[in-house]
User: Which sequence fits this backbone?
């Protein structure tokens, strides 16, 4: 097992883009080598060691590498981007694009996450013990496919456009979500325990289950009886008929 | 005085009938000359194929492409052709580049230059938004540029044709070219743009345009009469009716036949039909869709009044953009894609829809085959201009890939092997064994453009021509393009040298310098009395309908960098 502990030397206002900070890049490297990894800082580049205290223990494969962020990193973006294995634990708030495009491994965030958490993620797992902002599991601007696989669990609330353009994988939100969750979905499964507004517009495919209160249910859904999932009976809606969709929307 | 001597080049220049002969090329002050002094800078081109700079005669590189950009922000990160696409950081010599189908303006200049192209012709400038096109032209480095102005669904044009006022029509065309600083007359789905304003389309050459009581055939004949009366350097440039519809090959041939009796006013074709691939479909629906290329190419083989370009499809993502509004609506509904639609007031319509050409789709596979069938079935390369209608059929950065399809039956068979049986039944390409050589390729990519656009100083290496030269690291005779197509693709993807007006702009596939190119535009002379009579009519149009005034409509000189005014004398 290799454990790498990172903590900011001092809080930054100018964002750091930590797209190199993932187990794939850290595995088997010494503290010194990790310190030398370049990260983008503002409009320039500098070694990771200039911004973070780095402590690496042990040396192991990617699967057995764990990165731990101690403290708030709410101005550090793209942590865990494109990671394929291993684990990242963040004990604090994190900035945008955390776990975007990740293919495997696990990210645990003990704090809040900014927008684009797990966007275009293809595999692995993200557990957020806090609230998320906009576009959880969404796609890049203009892209027709967002999250493709893996699982995101949010143990708090999220803002608007949850799982936009999702094509696969699973999102579970324990709290409430904002406007237009599951917009333009084409696959995958979203479970919302709390409240939602205007869910699943333009959904072509996929499943959305909402246990809480739904506001402004779109008129472009056909009600087709009921369906039972894990002992709970839901009203079943199919649509969005505007796009010839075959998505399933289950509401209590 | 700057002098360059290109030594021992293996020159392929169809304009002079030179087929890969070793010779020297002398350059002085941006022009090709007979000889240079001993002080000339020497470029050793031994063992390297040397041609005139490429000339893309139909590309969407300024203007409408910008709608494609803001509809497809995701295009910025596409990198399907490494080295010629994707995000590239700025360097000391170049600005930052992004994109694939809709790259930023700088990337368009750099990437064309890397392919050995030095001149481009923007295929569609709506008069009303010409200023924007020129603003983009200004920021496309290296290349010489020109653009074709849209006249095919213009109210004033249709009224003059209806009222049988050919002289005023010619005066209006001359004024429109000046207003937009355009080079030629582009006609897109004649009448269709206006019909689209009413949610309709025209169904063929003899379907009258709503409210104007003229037919597309009359529009075409009216405009070609004006075109030849003004002795414009380019013929009318026609995007036929019914584009993208199964069975449209008949309309295409019918359109070509209309022009048989037209007498060109200059030594060039009387008609250029563009992206014929999209207009050579047989069948009656997408179910029984099949190639119409054999019929179209049969006709072209027997005709000598026209030229055409391909609109070759490249598999992968593309962005369709055209003034043919109804076609884009149909595309977006059929493909469930995003759609942008624009109304150009009294002039035309337009639309933009991104799409994906997949070899697994039998329709896309047949489209891909049709472009190549046209290129290979038409016997005379001097009728064929190579294009992908970039980015409608695919981005221009794929030209080297497309060249391998034209030059190697083996390469085509490789692609075809992935097609479904259904697709194979609907195409004739597998039975075609013609393979182009470098000479024929040079004709289609630079020599014929010189003739089509009456630009004698472009597309050839004659003494006196512009020193726009592409030197590729490949030697015909030493390699066999029918089997070693990877080498062909590599060589055409990045020149050893590209020279623009005698300046080395690309060396070993990297940008060396980024001089500003020229803008060509046509100023056709019209008698003052006819012009002022016409002005009265358009003044009324501006007063009653346009959202801008005439004085704010004209593209001013400040928008043009290094303008080259081509004067012509109208015959009245």
Assistant:
């Amino acid at each position: 097992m290799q454990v790498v502990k990172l903590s900011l030397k001092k809080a930054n206002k100018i964002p750091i883009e930590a797209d190199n900070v993932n187990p794939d890049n850290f595995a088997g490297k010494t503290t010194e080598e990790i310190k030398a990894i370049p990260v983008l800082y503002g409009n320039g580049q500098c070694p990771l060691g200039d911004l973070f205290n780095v402590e690496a223990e042990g040396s192991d494969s990617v699967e057995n590498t764990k990165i731990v962020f101690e403290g708030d990193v709410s101005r550090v973006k793209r942590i865990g981007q494109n990671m394929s294995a291993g684990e990242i634990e963040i004990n604090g708030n994190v900035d945008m694009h955390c776990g975007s495009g990740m293919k495997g491994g696990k990210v645990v965030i003990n704090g809040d996450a900014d927008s684009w958490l797990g966007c275009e993620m293809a595999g692995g797992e993200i557990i957020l013990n806090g609230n998320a902002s906009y576009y959880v599991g969404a796609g890049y601007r203009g892209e027709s496919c967002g999250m493709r696989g893996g699982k995101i669990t949010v143990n708090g609330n999220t803002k608007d456009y949850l799982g936009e353009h999702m094509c696969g994988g699973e999102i579970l939100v324990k709290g409430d979500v904002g406007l237009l969750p599951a917009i333009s979905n084409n696959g995958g499964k979203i479970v919302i325990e709390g409240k939602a507004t205007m869910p699943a517009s333009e959904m072509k495919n996929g499943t959305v289950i909402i246990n809480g209160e739904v506001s402004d249910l779109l008129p472009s859904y056909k009600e087709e009886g009921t369906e039972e999932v894990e002992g709970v009976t839901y009203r079943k809606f199919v649509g969005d008929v505007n796009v010839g969709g075959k998505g399933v929307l289950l509401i209590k | 005085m700057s002098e360059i001597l290109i030594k021992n080049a293996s020159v392929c220049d169809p304009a002079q009938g030179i087929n890969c002969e070793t010779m020297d090329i002398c350059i002085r002050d941006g022009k090709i000359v007979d000889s240079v002094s001993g002080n000339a800078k020497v470029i050793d081109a031994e063992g390297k194929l040397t041609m005139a700079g490429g000339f893309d005669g139909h590309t969407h590189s300024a203007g409408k492409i910008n709608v494609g950009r803001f509809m497809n922000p995701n295009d910025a990160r596409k990198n399907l052709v490494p080295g010629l696409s994707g995000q590239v950081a700025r360097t000391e010599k170049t600005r930052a580049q992004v994109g694939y189908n809709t790259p930023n303006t700088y990337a368009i200049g750099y990437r064309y230059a890397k392919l050995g192209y030095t001149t481009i012709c923007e295929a569609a400038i709506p008069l009303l938004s010409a200023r924007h096109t020129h603003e983009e032209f200004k920021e496309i480095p290296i290349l010489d540029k020109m653009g074709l102005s849209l006249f095919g669904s213009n109210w004033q044009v249709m009224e003059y044709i209806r009222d049988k006022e050919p002289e005023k029509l010619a005066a209006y065309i001359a004024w429109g070219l000046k207003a937009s600083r355009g080079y030629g007359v582009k006609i897109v789905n004649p009448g269709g743009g206006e019909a689209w304003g009413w949610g309709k389309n025209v169904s063929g050459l003899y379907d009258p345009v709503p409210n104007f009581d003229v037919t597309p055939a009359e529009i075409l004949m009216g405009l070609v009469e004006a075109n030849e009366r003004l002795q414009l350097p380019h013929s009318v440039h026609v995007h036929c009716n019914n584009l993208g519809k199964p069975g449209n090959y008949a309309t295409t041939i019918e359109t070509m036949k209309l022009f048989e009796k037209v007498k060109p006013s200059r030594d060039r074709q009387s008609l250029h039909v563009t992206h014929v691939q999209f207009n050579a479909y047989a069948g009656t629906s997408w179910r029984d869709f099949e190639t119409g290329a054999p019929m179209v190419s049969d006709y072209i083989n027997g005709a000598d009044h026209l030229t055409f370009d391909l609109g070759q499809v490249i598999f992968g993502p593309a962005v369709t953009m055209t003034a043919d509004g109804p076609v884009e609506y149909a595309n977006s509904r059929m493909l469930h894609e995003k759609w942008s639609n624009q109304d150009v007031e009294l002039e035309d319509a337009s639309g933009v829809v991104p799409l994906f050409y997949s070899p697994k789709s039998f329709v896309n596979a047949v489209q891909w085959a049709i472009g190549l069938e046209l290129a290979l079935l038409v016997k005379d390369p001097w009728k064929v201009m190579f294009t992908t209608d970039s980015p409608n059929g695919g981005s221009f950065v794929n030209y080297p890939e497309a060249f391998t399809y034209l030059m190697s039956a083996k390469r085509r068979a490789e692609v075809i092997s992935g097609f479904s049986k259904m697709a194979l039944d609907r195409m004739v390409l597998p039975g075609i064994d013609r393979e182009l050589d470098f000479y024929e390729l040079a004709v289609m990519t630079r020599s014929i453009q010189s003739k089509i656009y009456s630009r004698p100083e472009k597309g050839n290496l004659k003494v006196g021509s512009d020193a726009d030269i592409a030197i590729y690291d490949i030697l015909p005779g030493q390699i066999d393009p029918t089997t070693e197509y990877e080498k062909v693709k590599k060589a055409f993807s990045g020149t050893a040298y590209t020279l623009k007006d005698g300046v080395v702009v690309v060396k070993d596939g990297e940008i060396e310098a980024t001089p500003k190119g020229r803008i060509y535009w046509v100023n056709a002379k019209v008698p003052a009395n006819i012009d002022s009579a016409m002005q009265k009519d358009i003044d009324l149009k501006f007063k009653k309908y346009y959202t801008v005034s005439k004085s704010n409509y004209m593209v001013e000189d400040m928008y043009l960098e290094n303008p080259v005014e081509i004067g012509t004398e109208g015959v009245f």
